[in-house]
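example protein:
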Amino acid sequence: MRINKFFTEQGLCSRREADRLIAEGRVTINGRTAKLGDQVTPSDVVARDGTIVQRGNPFVYLKYHKPVGVTTTTEPQVRRNIIAEIGHALRIFPIGRLDKDSSGLILLTNDGDIVNEILRVEHGHEREYRVEVDRPFDEAFLSGMARGVVILGARTRPCTVTRLSPRRFRIILTEGRNRQIRRMCQAFGYRVVSLHRVRIMHITIDGLQPGQWKDLTETERRDLFAALGRSVESTR
């Protein structure tokens, strides 16, 4: 199999991240620096940053209530990075991200193949947020947000926006651009005071306190795989 697929099957990272590591010369096969597109056989010894990759770790899928101040990165030198905060025994990585100044639900796994299946825009998977802005807003703001806003040179997808209070609203997105909600609000002259994600697809943050994590339940996993067109048997 290709070296980047090998990395995802061992639960080390996504294929894109594997390609980056290979391009940076941080991966070897039998002591030789790997190249993009290299093939790996069962007898090959693969190492990353000089450490041999152990084969056969089980896949894990968990959800985490990220507090404000935790950075969604796997880089160990970053203070309060999400991996260090969770402290899982296996090497895991986040599916998508939340800004350092945002809080709420984020999923993590060591199943690299599942990442793009969840994040790809064309799949239209929902993400739900609770947002507070710096001053009261009117109905024109809600309808404008729902229709879509031009940010980063392109219009956002139509979304569902519901008022919760004079300064708070609920928003359900089916895409995840960089700092999307903050940029959308800024386009109307508002500043986001707090942003909290409460749901990804059918998986909610219910029952998780800030800083807590737990494995997905059997029902959550089964429903997740069904939504992605995968079977439970396809995971180890």
User: Anything to note?
Assistant: The domain at 126-200 is CATH 3.30.70.1560 (Alpha-Beta Plaits). The radius of gyration is 20 Å. Residues 4 and 18 are 5 Å apart (CA to CA). Residues 218-227 form the longest helix (10 residues).
